[in-house]
């Protein structure tokens, strides 16, 4: 983390402690020592996420909550009570989800810019998409250079259903995108702390404007109104893109010539060598790479009974879609083809897979690798980078279990 | 309701009041008068369903809770907090879901009958299916002869994901179904009240044995362990069949020569003319018929603003799969083709549909009708029958709204 990032982080934390959400969550008294006294090793669930199933989650911080590897289930869809949570700033006041249809968004960079309410959007079109939501730093906990940020293992990802209006329907109703625009830039509605340059902390992200073809402005998650914690009343959903691009409480969607100058875009979420600072010449965390991981067995060192076993997991990609998955029980020496289970919910959803194995007593290193339609294969090794982004190496994701 | 049925109902209610579940739910003090004092028109959520979203539900009784028509959303999957609930007997003690893998089921009518735990089943195979769960009496509230039972309108139905082991995998591991068996008979694990002939009240259902091809023994619902209210630790899931056949807390699955002699099979859930008693010669509530209904707009008498409107709903069938849906805003005089929205989750799931209409001020009667792959069409009228089963007539499901 750069010195600048650190300062912002300190400001942010102070702000959170003073904000309503922070106070409600008891964050003002939240320090490592008080936690240790309360419950060794476990942090309290923040108020904004009080509806989460605590037994299924790992709380890294008030803004970073991970799904336990043994809590993904086999249904293909991640229950919202078990979906990871990552916020770059504290959530706005909960009052904004009391009358969600009244939330306003500015649409700009189109022929006829407009201010629309969610109520207006609901009359303009409808689509539903099953999509993997994954934090850029998912897998950061496997890096060895202590990359700063939440030490996610596999659980900063989930597959969920979003409903809303296609961005292309809104754009069409407003006369189309203006000539020369190259980016779609979304601005979050978080309340910014006073006395800080907005560009340093505002959640504003730009993606190539063509992403609008599949993007939706969503007000619903898994069949229920989008909760505040996950960006309600309105969130921009960009299928195939890392979580940070799916801006919450979206208050402005603009087609722009340039990327936003906000730090979260300019220097944040950039892939660079270890020790380097972030800058706009480096790749931005946009499309997700090809990835899979085993969810059952679910823990290193697990002890299992000999015999038949259903090795399960999930596979997904933001680019060329997943065509197949292979499973290994010997640390990658040999592989067997896994079978997909359950409905295929579209190319942006993850596929649930299972491989039946028959294990005599012994020690096994169990892992999976995904194969994409274009023939590319999930790599063995992670790509080292400063912030521990985009980890899809199958070796670090392996589990070693004992069968007796 | 026959006199026999009524007696059983009285016994059942007394038993529920005395049982742990009943006491925990405060059912012993639950009478129309006390309810009226507490909250006019609203009944309390029973303890077993305390996790339900009260704002999304209509509580008919402690064993009958309906999803509000405006609470289905557009995501295709019904959130478990919004899924209807119907129990024929009170749920067993909640202790049975504390260690779900220990639950035992007897498998009989196979070459090698066996007693298996859920832990054993989890090692034997895996499948996930998206399936409409619908009460036989869904739509009963539209009948005019006051059919006995919960007065469901549209909300005793939901589309959810079930994970478990395919019954055919279990059967194959036990040497196959014995010669001459014609039914698959499932027995529920409810605790029966003392002093009553078990056959009168036990939840035991038989379906044609070929239904085993798609059936699963499920321990997971929408990505989380199956809750007690919905049949956890283990429920038999028979895709395409009405809810009652999907026996909860299943403790025995047997292939049998004859249908069970339990009342719930012999005389209950039989379609017969008004005034007739149930008997085994009448059709049993097995495969669901072709059905659709509008979910948005969502109320009779709703007032809407003139202009564009997205008419939404769901369509499903237990037989020939849904091929298309048509929407009418003039009470069936003219129809327009609706569009499917979101992922297609398989033939047993429902399809979310939407039709964009542009309505000038006036009064509209909005409804939908589904068309199946075999060319059959959802009928206009209900089929009158004593218990108000299987209502799929599109006229009763229509909503009259005012646009200004």
Task: Give an overview of the whole structure.
The structure is a homodimer of 404-residue chains. Chain A is built from 7 helices and 22 strands. The first copy, chain A, is of the alpha+beta class and 404 residues long. Chain A has 2 domains: 3-266, Sulfite Oxidase, Chain A, domain 2 (Alpha-Beta Complex), CATH 3.90.420; 291-403, Immunoglobulin-like (Sandwich). In chain A, the strands form 5 sheets. A 5-stranded mixed β-sheet of chain A has the order 5-4-13-8-9. In chain A, a hairpin with a 2-residue loop joins β1 and β2. In chain A, 53% of the residues are buried. Residues 1-39 of chain A have low confidence and may be disordered. At the A-B interface, α4, β6, β7, β11 and β16 of A face α4, β6, β7, β11 and β16 of B. Chains A, B: GO terms for molecular function: heme binding; molybdenum ion binding; molybdopterin cofactor binding; sulfite oxidase activity. Chains A, B: Residues 284-395 form the Moybdenum cofactor oxidoreductase dimerisation domain.
Keywords:
homodimer; 404 residues; alpha+beta; Sulfite Oxidase, Chain A, domain 2; Immunoglobulin-like; 2 domains; five-stranded mixed sheet; five-stranded antiparallel sheet; 22 strands; disordered N terminus; oxidoreductase (chains A, B); sulfite oxidase activity (chains A, B); Mopterin_OxRdtase_euk (chains A, B); OxRdtase_Mopterin-bd_sf (chains A, B); metal-binding (chains A, B)
């Amino acid at each position: 983390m750069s010195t600048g990032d650190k300062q912002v982080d300190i400001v942010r934390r102070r702000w959170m402690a003073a904000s309503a959400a922070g106070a409600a969550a008891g964050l003002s008294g939240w320090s490592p020592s008080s936690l240790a006294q309360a419950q060794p090793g476990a942090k309290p669930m923040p108020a904004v996420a009080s509806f989460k199933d605590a037994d299924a989650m790992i709380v890294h911080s008030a803004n970073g909550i991970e799904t336990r590897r043994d809590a993904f289930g086999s249904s293909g869809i991640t229950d919202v009570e078990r979906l990871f949570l990552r916020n770059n700033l504290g959530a706005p006041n909960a009052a904004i989800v009391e009358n969600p249809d009244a939330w306003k968004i500015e649409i700009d960079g189109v022929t006829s810019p407009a201010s629309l309410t969610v109520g207006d959007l609901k009359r303009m079109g409808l689509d539903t998409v099953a999509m993997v939501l994954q934090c850029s730093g998912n897998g950061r906990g496997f890096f060895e250079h202590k990359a700063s940020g939440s030490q996610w293992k596999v659980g900063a990802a989930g597959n969920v259903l979003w409903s809303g209006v296609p961005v292309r329907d809104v754009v069409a109703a407003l006369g189309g995108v203006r000539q020369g625009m190259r980016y779609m830039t979304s601005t979050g509605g978080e309340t910014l702390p006073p006395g800080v340059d907005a560009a340093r902390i505002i959640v504003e992200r730009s993606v190539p404007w063509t992403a609008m073809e599949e993007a939706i402005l969503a007000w619903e998650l898994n069949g229920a109104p989008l909760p505040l914690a996950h960006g309600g009343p309105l969130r921009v959903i960009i299928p195939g893109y890392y979580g940070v691009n799916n801006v919450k409480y979206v208050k402005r969607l603009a087609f722009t010539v340039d990327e936003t100058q906000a730090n979260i875009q300019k220097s944040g979420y950039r892939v660079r060598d270890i020790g380097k600072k972030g800058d706009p010449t480096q790749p931005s965390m946009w499309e997700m790479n090809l990835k899979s991981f085993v969810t059952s067995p679910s823990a290193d060192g697990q002890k299992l009974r000999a015999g038949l076993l259903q090795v399960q997991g999930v596979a997904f990609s933001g680019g060329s879609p997943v065509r197949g998955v292979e499973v290994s029980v010997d640390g990658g020496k040999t592989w067997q083809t896994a079978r997909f289970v359950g409905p295929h919910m579209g190319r942006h959803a993850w596929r649930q897979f299972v491989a039946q194995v028959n294990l005599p007593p012994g020690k096994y290193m169990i892992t999976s690798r995904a194969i994409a339609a274009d023939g590319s294969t999930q790599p063995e090794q992670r790509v080292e980078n400063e912030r521990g982004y985009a980890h899809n190496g199958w070796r670090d994701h392996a589990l070693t279990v004992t069968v007796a």
